[in-house]
TrEMBL record:
Keyword Transcription regulation belongs to the record: no
Pfam families: TctC
Parts of the chain that traverse the membrane: none
Statement: the UniProt record of this protein carries the keyword Signal: yes
Name listed for the protein in its UniProt record: Tripartite tricarboxylate transporter substrate binding protein
Record key words, sorted: Signal
Alphabetized InterPro entries for the sequence: BUG, Bug_dom1
Top-rank taxon: Bacteria
Signal peptide: 1-21
Family under the similarity heading: Belongs to the UPF0065 (bug) family.
């Protein structure tokens, strides 16, 4: 699907100016736009949200203010967005975790992304990354599997939260590799990263953007990415399928990031935002900036993203149910 969408993007005439956005409603925007970031500062979603906000603001003369609303696996911020007025002044950078997994995971949620949100623009996708401290005895993912089979549950890993796509990617890896690891959930990737660097937790399972800074500085050792292809930001890091571990030959799990708004947001505002995000993603500067954070830029039309969101939402129901993870 990604290849078809990338091919479609190449045919889209994206030489679009900021003036086109001014046709979105009566002089919209006339005040700052709030970008809800459903995770703490410093994590992958926060980094991308602030990057997109800054570049959209520069290109269009808009003021977009990032507003971190972490908690409940990233669904707290999305719940706040659902309740916001659909006037084009409240948007969020969501992802697989809180948009398509959270509604199946948290029984108390009263919304779903298809009925209660408007898909605005797909921004990027990223493999999940498994890494460890540079001081760790684990040199490869195969080393981790060997240790875990020798001492079930002794190897620990931190994730950005219970039931997130990153946690479930690790769960799927455990199943495929036939090992038992001990999961330690955190409120976001950054606090998990701190504990891994301190040697309190063995492994960090995170997005690439959340870890690449510490990898580049030599503090983290990357072990594997979960996608079918290597990350362009970490070309020397093998995929799980390349790690020489029995049972994981076709392993492929990625996360993605996209802009959403409350249901009922004016169509002309949604079109303007989608147009400007896609124009931004077409620039070499933005592509490099996103890849530097370990993600891969990927534009979609509003209709394509809405279809993608609905299909992924339906697909992850079975994965969540099979994991046995449910939160009241």
């Amino acid at each position: 699907m990604f290849k078809k969408l990338l091919a479609g993007l190449a045919m889209m005439g994206l030489g679009i100016t900021a003036a086109m956005a001014q046709g979105a409603g009566a002089n919209w925007p006339t005040k700052p736009i709030r970008m809800i970031v459903p995770f703490p500062p410093g994590g992958g979603t926060d980094i991308l949200a602030r990057l997109v906000s800054a570049k959209l603001g520069e290109a269009n003369g808009w003021t977009i203010v990032a507003d971190n609303k972490p908690g409940v696996g990233g669904t707290l911020g999305i719940t706040e967005l659902v309740r916001a007025a659909p006037a084009g002044y409240d948007i969020a950078l969501g992802q697989k975790d809180n948009l398509v997994i959270g509604p199946w995971l948290y029984k108390s949620l009263t919304w779903n992304p298809v009925n209660d949100l408007t898909a605005v623009a797909h921004v990027a996708y990223s493999p999940v990354l498994i890494s460890t401290s540079a001081q760790s005895p684990y040199k490869t993912l195969a080393d981790v599997v060997t240790a875990a089979k020798a001492r079930p549950t002794a190897v620990t890993y931190g994730s950005p939260g219970n039931g997130t796509s990153i946690h479930l990617a690790a769960h799927l890896f455990e199943q495929a590799a036939g090992v038992q690891l001990t999961h330690i959930p955190y409120r976001g990737s950054n606090p998990a990263l701190v504990d891994v660097l301190a040697g309190n937790v063995d492994l960090l399972v995170s997005s690439v953007p959340s870890a690449i800074g510490q990898i580049n500085s030599g503090n983290l050792r990357p072990l594997a990415v979960t996608s079918a292809r290597r990350s362009s930001s970490l070309p020397d890091v093998p995929t799980i399928a390349e790690s020489g571990i029995e049972g994981v030959g076709d392993f492929d799990v990625s996360t993605w990031y996209g802009m959403v708004a409350p249901a009922g947001t004016p169509a002309e505002v949604v079109r303007a935002l989608n147009t400007q995000v896609n124009a931004l993603l077409a620039t070499p500067e933005m592509q490099k900036a996103i890849q530097a954070q370990g993600a891969e830029p990927l534009a979609m039309t509003q209709t394509e993203f809405a279809t993608f969101l609905q299909q992924d939402y339906e697909a992850w129901r079975g994965i969540v149910e099979s994991s046995g993870v449910a939160i009241d």
